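#onboarding

Welcome to the new folks! Below is a worked example of what a typical request in this channel looks like: someone posts a single protein sequence, and someone else replies with the predicted structure as tokens. Don't worry about understanding the tokens yet, we'll cover that in week two.

Example request:
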Amino acid sequence: MTTNGYAIRGSGRHNEAQIACNYCRELWRKQSVMSNAYVTLWTKARCAWLRRVRDSGPLFVLFGGPHISLPSMAHVNVGDTVFPVWVAEGQLRVIARMQVGRLITLAEYASEYLRLGSLPVGPVDPGFAQQHPELGHRAPFGCIDQVAIASEGTPFNFERSIAPEDLPLLRFGPRPGKEKALTGLQDGRLATSLSFQGHVRRASEQTRKILAAVCVNS
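Example response:
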């Protein structure tokens, strides 16, 4: 006899537990295959401010919006991985890694996580983050239409960078087969951040592995 493709040998709670365990492993495997990795650009000003308020993570939340200054995360799903990056001294620096565990509205975030009750409709007051430095990266800013909450996030590191020889291997695009290399590469250095501006960029599988390795090994 089979259930959901798994053979039942004998009967009893042990077999039921084994079936459930196998089924969960299969779901996890499918989710791992289907999930995507993305890169989002943090500005030098934002990185400088986070350092100034001594926010070292771990990465708990990311915000998405309708404008270039805060790109949309509409295509990001639960289970996906997002890597905030910034460009400094010709290097692509990987700040942290976050797996998305929940996608909610700004109103839900303000009520459940900041315990503010509500925020005014429209763009968040630019002074809000300055008034609440203790929140660090958790302080909302700009026009936000989606909030991604982490199921897992790493501490911040503003100095770790992709090796120069790996930069030409990075590929980004909406789907496999449509991925392109970075623009602005010159002698192993990244002359511009244009490849990342205004978009939360989907990474190829090889790029995901390179980004993840940087987070693990440094």
